[in-house]
Amino acid sequence: MSRRTLPLPSWLPIDPYIMALVGTVVLAALLPASGAAADVASGASTGAVAFLFFLYGARLSTAQAVEGLKHWRLHLTVLACTFVAFPLLGLASGGLVPYVLTPQLQSGFLFLCLVPSTIQSSIAFTSIARGNVPAAICAGSFSSIAGIFVTPLLAAALLGNSGGGFSVDALLRIGVQLLLPFVAGQLLRRWIGGFLARHKKVLGLVDRGSILLVVYTAFSEGMVAGIWHQVTPARLGALLAAEAVLLALMLAVSWYGAKRLGFGREDRVAIQFAGSKKSLASGLPMASVLFGAQASLAVLPLMLFHQMQLMVCAVIAKRRARDLLEAPDRAVARESAAVG
Known about the structure:
Distance between the termini: 43 Å
Structural class: mainly alpha
Mean pLDDT: 81
Oligomer: single chain
Number of helices: 13
Largest sheet: none
Shape: globular
Helix content: over 70%
Low-confidence stretches: 1-13, 330-340
Strand content: under 5%
């Protein structure tokens, strides 16, 4: 696979999709679904979540996943960042309650630490930084697959009843709404994979539209339940500060940890970008299943973290690429100084 640079803006102040998500939240605040409309929205949201994970399964190339297993040390490192280091930091955030975060916001903060890594943005930033793009593709894919199984189990173990009444019933809903559609997509990939590849752009819009529906339903339920009165501007600022610290720590752990493990520069780039980010596309549907009426507060930390990671990683990726281009010049300068 060629390491072709994927186009991204030179500066990424606001992700357009985040703006669409914000608009959806505003719509839910002004016109929340209630009564019969809420039942319709909830049913449509459930179907949208199942369809999303069916598409995830149908798009996953089994051959590519098997090929990626050859670089197992890199993938284990990314998985350790995603499902070990992140959750440990999420647990440590319990010390911020109640002085910095409310219990509900801390539950959402911990949940964001449990969701899998991204795929698309990890690939894009790895490509910009001249890293190992094939490894980033496989690492993101493995993380997404593992997250379908690992995230609900971690949520059951670490969140307990704070996750909106998380229970065995929630695990069963995860199986029906997420696992079964995913497996069905994998089984049908042989016949529908070509169709999905030919209509990638249209299906991408379907993906994002489905997630917007999930967000609208979750925030409508939150408005009807009156839970948004619990979030003050001061608490929101504290949440942003805590997430900035979380992102900085994971960027450092993934970069310097990979160096200590003996990975080369290209692999370290892939590990940093795949191991320091969290997937909004996977996390939002899971939250709607796990948290129910509390989902709006649960996904708020994830939505904010998603935008923050895009902005910060865009800057880092360009810096990594610039450092690589400037390295030969620095080497020549050092050689000239030594000769002189």
